[in-house]
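Expect chain and fold; see below:
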Amino acid sequence: MRRMLVQLLEADGYHTDAVAGSGEALSAVVSSEPDLVLLDVVLGQEDGRELLLELRALSNVPVVFLTGRGLETDRIAGLRMGADDYVVKPFSPGELTARIESVLRRCRPALPTVPVAGGLSFGTLRIDRRSREVTYDTEPIDLTAKEFDLLVFLATSPRQVFSRQQLLEHVWSSSCDWQDEATVTEHVHRLRRKIEGEPARPRLIVTVRGVGYRFEPGATRAFPMERVPALL
């Protein structure tokens, strides 16, 4: 289960630290200060609920319980003990990542966008909506019209997840009834080739499996030193 979760989360751009026991978990929380903890209720001979109480004595880190115990009484007990969410096995990858994002949004403030003249700023990434220009470290990034529109739409709502259907509606003024959702997928791929350090492992425009895409403002350091030429 740990190996599967590591693969799933790292594919979505998260950095993970997987541990097997309560002692290792407590040490990892203290030393690494993670943004969130996924905690199984059953830890071999240990009880994840007891570990949760110990965690709460050390940290306010958000905790999401993973469990095969789906009874309402079990869920209520876990939440009252201090868990921030409760995911019952079996679960889909899309459900898990969506719940993680929901907890992170509730438990930490979104990184603010800094308004610049006519646009947005995330660190050294600048998006000028009036001139329709994008720069990183003052270096221009050559985007097509729809790539620019897509980036602006996602960047104006950091960490919010949008489905392909929603992106078709808002960016293309279209719908999946008469335009293929693959249009969105292809434009995301093209955009990633231009702004991601590793397009195959995106950190800025992140896929939320089974749901859609989100913009991660804290990952702007992932930009490459060399840009891929514009695809026209």
